[in-house]
Amino acid sequence: MQHRTVHDVMTHEVVTARPDTPFKEVAALFHRNDITAIPVVDDEGRPLGMVSEADLVRKEAVLADPEGRTPGRWLDAHDRARAEAETAGGLMTSPAVTAHADWSIPEAARAMDKHKVKRLPVVDEIGRLVGIVSRRDLLQVFLRHDAAIRDEINHDVLGQTLWLAPGAVQVTVHDGVVTLTGRLPRKSLVPITEQLCRAVDGVVAVHQTLDFTEDDTHLRLEHPQAYGTGPRR
């Protein structure tokens, strides 16, 4: 089974800023390149942090309004300092949360979810910037055609991985939702088959009504080490 990686979906040419890049130049970079965030890098090209449109908009939030109300009262000292910053180094969120090009799509998605970020600078083995990946980039895997998903499941999962006889399991795919019907030789293969199909790029969900010839679940309980579930010595 071949899985797409961050390298396959990331943007390779990245617009960057330096810590001393002025506020207005950062805003101009956003406008000229139709982007909403940029990495801030050091002299070696290593990401130090990220500046987003939200960081720039924060400056507007602390401006006095016509009624004379005190602006930015809800900001803590750190965020107020960022709102008043004049350069990318002061505006940025740091440290930068990064990814590696060989990460799988799920790995990158988990990092984004964990750190509540919308994009990740991608770095090489010594931490230099080589690309950037966004939420939208990760969603490209769900643009795969149903036929490609079905073919991969039939060939890679059922044939090459599980060594099932052709036609033992019937696979249909509609809008990324996989339906499995048929008969497996052992009951223990039912959850394994479902899990492997879920791991195929572009699969939204898996539904199955798989039957089986032999109920081998009692063997898993009696001989767990033979099935890789028991304690190892």
From TrEMBL:
Specify the protein name: CBS domain-containing protein
Positions of the BON domain: 145-214
- Where does this protein come from, organism-wise? Kitasatospora sp. CMC57
- What InterPro entries does its record include? BON_dom, CBS_dom, CBS_dom_sf, Diverse_CBS-Domain, UCP036990_CBS_BON
Q: Which UniProt keywords apply?
A: CBS domain
Limits of the CBS domain: 10-67, 92-152
Q: What is the lineage of its organism?
A: Bacteria, Bacillati, Actinomycetota, Actinomycetes, Kitasatosporales
